[in-house]
Amino acid sequence: MIIKKTDLPQVANSIMNALHEDEVEIINELYSACEEGNKERIDQLMELLVYDIEDHFSTEEELMREGDFFAYPMHKAEHDSMRQEVKALMESWKRNKKPEEISQFIKERLVPWLMLHIARWDSTTAMHLGD
């Protein structure tokens, strides 16, 4: 386990909190599969992560548009940047099949990014949107 649900900053919107918790489950499963070198499981979980990130970000973006969130362009830009990074990781995985590349990305980039993103962008967004 690379991150506990209890480590996640909680925001003032239950939908956003649920999205974050779901993503943490996938991240942890993927990290474990990488540590075990289970390439078949990594294939499945990478597909799931890509899908989940898109669902997570699209849901938040829809909430921001509906709530007329003033910083929507900046928040979405953060999402778009991570979308590109995860897409590049997926392409690299398909070519190279290196579990250590994924586990390193999770540990050094994805988890720190998620924690900072929630604390900085999602908490502000959630306060604007409410529950």
From TrEMBL:
- Which residues, by range, are in coiled-coil regions? none
For this UniProt entry, the molecular function terms from Gene Ontology, in alphabetical order, are: metal ion binding; oxygen carrier activity
Pfam families registered for this protein in UniProt: Hemerythrin
Output the SUPFAM superfamilies linked to this UniProt entry: Hemerythrin-like (SSF47188)
Q: Which InterPro entries match?
A: Haemerythrin_Fe_BS, Hemerythrin, Hemerythrin-like, Hemerythrin-like_sf, Hemerythrin_metal-bd
Q: Per its UniProt entry, which superkingdom is the organism in?
A: Bacteria
Which UniProt keywords are present, listed alphabetically? Answer: Iron, Metal-binding, Oxygen transport, Transport
- Tell me where in this chain the Hemerythrin-like domain is found: 14-124
So what family is this one in?
Belongs to the hemerythrin family.
- Protein name (Swiss-Prot/TrEMBL): Hemerythrin
The species this protein was found in:
Hydrogenobacter hydrogenophilus
